[in-house]
Amino acid sequence: MNKIVISKEVNPYYNLALEEELFENVKEDEMILYLWQNEKTIVIGRNQNPYVECDIDAIEKDNISLARRLSGGGTVYHDLGNLNFTFITSKNNENLNKQLKVIKKSLEMFNLSVEFSGRNDLLSDGKKFSGHAFYEENNSYYHHGTLMVDVDITMLQKFLKPSKLKLQSKGIKSVKSRVINLKDKVPNITIDSLIDALKESFKIVYGNVKEESILNKDCYSPRYIDKYSCKKWIYGESPKYTINLEQTLNIGNIQVLLDVESGIINNVKIYSDTLLNINFEDIENKLIHKEFDRNKITKFLKDQLN
Prior knowledge:
Elements: E1 2-7, H1 12-25, E2 32-36, E3 41-44, H2 50-53, H3 56-61, E4 65-68, E5 76-78, E6 82-90, H4 96-108, E7 115-116, E8 121-124, E9 127-137, E10 140-148, H5 153-159, E11 166-169, H6 182-185, H7 191-206, E12 209-215, H8 225-229, H9 231-236, E13 241-249, E14 252-261, E15 264-272, H10 280-287, H11 294-305
Parallel strand pairs: 1-2, 1-12, 3-4
Antiparallel strand pairs: 2-6, 3-5, 6-10, 7-8, 8-9, 9-10, 11-13, 13-14, 14-15
């Protein structure tokens, strides 16, 4: 038996938590189509480093949510002009061709032709409007992705770039692609009309849809919300990396090199052009084994050295 689940929440932590809960509990012969949206959110892949992938300064200034998903792949920007889909099933029941057929058929209802690229992307006229990622664990599997209907491209370009911190990483950098909104091709397409098309297409391809559930925080609270909103999950899953943090203080210019792994500072070295006799080693030792938080470190250095 198959089902459709639609989240009416736009909180990324709620939606990712619900996705994982559906994933954990899916039955062997069941296919779930899960549709969801996030309000202004950067979502990084499981193995990515947020400091490499996006402008942390801009994200914090503009109150953009930052989230990490279970699946690998690149960094994406979500807003309410984007619709996310997830196909959730067992490993034995997954069929990528059928899953893509659901997407393709839904877009054909708008007279849109779709091209498949080699990097799990869907294109229109050579421009990307949908990126996909995959995850499996135990006997469960999911395939999820974005559908850009009317995304604010300027915001996407603003946030999906390295921050001002100079950073070298062993993580995986997203490959920036040319993108297009479906609305540029079909002016009358909306999120609601695309949802209706996906539901209809899903029923055509899979049939036997036993139920449709519409969920929000008032009627259901997934148990993994705290996990996805936790700073340790968002930042602490980052691979090992070295940050080169430069500041101009009253004492002169300083350069701070920090080795960070799983969000914890393992090693620190401070360099400076100051003429003052300062024991930087004491300051370095105070930072070792601390959680890496750029704002707190900046304040700490100013307090210690200004």
